[in-house]
């Protein structure tokens, strides 16, 4: 889906080559970590604690969005998943995180607008 239209993507190389090139770390921006802290009067204190904990335990992590009680971080690809989960589990045990998700970078996150010049509009 791009610009509200469904596209079929293809490349001049075979599919295996395309899959390999997209999986090479130079295209990866790591993982996306989304955390939610408890709503209430202490929301600002909790979000500050989460920011401090994430920056301390996962150097290079960047806050890409903040919405009241939800924070979204871009975690570098060289950070181990165990480090991410250990950090979030500690924050959950401390009561400053109530929900979280970790996901891989999507193709939309890494591809420039004209990455697939050979696409067919449906």
Overview of this structure, please?
Helices cover 34% and strands 25% of the residues. The protein is α+β, with helices and mostly antiparallel strands and 122 residues long. It has a single domain (7-103, 110-121), classed as Alpha-Beta Plaits (2-Layer Sandwich). It has a four-stranded antiparallel sheet, covered by helices on one side. Strands 1-6 form a two-stranded antiparallel ribbon. Helix 2 runs antiparallel to helix 3. The longest helix is centred in the middle third of the chain and has 15 residues, at 43-57. It is globular, with a radius of gyration of 18 Å.
Q: What's the shape?
A: globular
Kindly estimate the percentage of residues that lie in beta strands according to DSSP: 15-25%
CATH top-level class: Alpha Beta
- Element string (H = helix, E = strand): EHEHEEHEHE
Mean pLDDT: 77
**What is the overall number of helices?**
4
Q: Rg, please?
A: 18 Å
- The beta-strand count equals 6
